[in-house]
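quick one
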Amino acid sequence: MSTTAVKLRGNRAASFWQSTNGKKIVMAVTGAILFAFVIGHMLGNLQVFDGPERLNAYGHFLHSLGEILWAERIVLLTAVALHITATVQLALRNKKARPVGYSRKEAINSSYASRTMYWSGPIVLAFIIFHLLHLTAAIIDPNAAYIEGDVYHNVVAGFQVWWVSAWYIFAICLLGLHLRHGIWSMFQSVGLNHPRYTPLLKTAAIWIAVIIVLGYISIPISVLLGLVK
Ligand code: HEM
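structure w/ protoporphyrin IX containing FE:
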């Protein structure tokens, strides 16, 4: 490829990123990648109900992927970074365009979930950092019970600490609120926005978010109740 062609492509990518629509597309695509991870991770974790062998085999399988696992981690990290950068830049742009802030009417029109996006996002991010330090790096290990490679034991021992479970449940409920609006935005991004189907799609977004929350929080709740031990 000639240097002029490379320059032209670079300019196109830069003007795409600079545009409001470009940032919205980046938010939608990265949101979809993260959403796919959240679903896959939940299905993987629900194997805790099938017992230690099943969950540990799944954990070993993931680790055996080696370079593929690292590629997935790089994609996730890039998606998180772009999602946050685009969100912050769009919020600053909106604020600049509307220096007096939201009018009461606009606040009423925007849903509760959409208004919580800006604070639920940072709390979910704080949760993910905590979660990685807890179950991946074992730097946070409140009851000094972490055993390298024994995913089932680490999950159960981790959730036996009540405040760890409480923090997970709280953060996952916020993740649900964040996803509810994110899923609805995703529907709109792919053109699923017809007055006839809007109520149906909004309800679908709520149910998908509720299923994800219930799937995840069923794990710490079952550990606290002694159903998984
Ligand atoms: C009850 C809820 C959850 C459980 C039991 C759980 C369990 C785990 C475990 C055991 C690991 C470490 C895997 C390993 O390295 O062997 C892990 C990693 C991870 N979890 Fe979760 N998780 C939960 C919720 C979540 C949520 C809600 C998110 C995101 C919003 C999330 C994001 C991640 C990420 C990004 C990793 C790192 C993946 C990697 O190393 O490739 N987890 N989780």
